Amino acid sequence: MSKLLSVLIAALFATVSAVSIAADAPKAEAKAEAKVEKKAEEKKAEVKAEAKVEEKKVEKKAEEKKAEVKAEAKAEEKKVEKKAEEKKAEVKAEAKAEEKKVEKKAEEKKPAAK
Questions:
Q1: HEC sequence for the chain
Q2: For residues 60 and 55, what is the distance between their CA atoms, to the nearest angstrom?
Q3: Which of 9, 61, 71, 112 is the most exposed place for a label (fewest CB within 10 A)?
Q4: 10: nearest Cα among 49, 110, 18
């Protein structure tokens, strides 16, 4: 009887242990899944942060390029203005020379008219 009692206690202990292990398996699985999900979320956040940094770099480069193009446009505008001023001065000089020719002809005609 004592042997039977020992066998029953051992069987009961084995059953409880097996049930306990079986009950812990889903918990361990869920824990592992949660850990994997947490790592995935961390990786996702890391990728988002890197993307944001990269986006800022791209925006900065775009702003620099925009400023460069603006400076080039301004320099080109100054060149055009300078050429326009030179052309204006040239036209004025030609007009003045033409005016002097007209005055000279007028003076040449004056003595002839007297």
A1: CHHHHHHHHHHHHHHHHHHHHHHHHHHHHHHHHHHHHHHHHHHHHHHHHHHHHHHHHHHHHHHHHHHHHHHHHHHHHHHHHHHHHHHHHHHHHHHHHHHHHHHHHHHHHHHHHC
A2: 9
A3: 112
A4: 18
Residue whose structure tokens are 């890197």: 50
What the block records as the tokens of 17 is 């242990």
pLDDT of residue 11: 82
What is the C-alpha R_g of the chain? 49
pLDDT (0 to 100) of residue 104? 85
User: Residue 106 is encoded by which pair of tokens?
Assistant: 């007028």
Per the prediction, the chain carries an average pLDDT of: 88
Single-letter residue type at 14:
A
Place of tokens 């020379």: 97
Diameter over CA atoms, the chain: 167
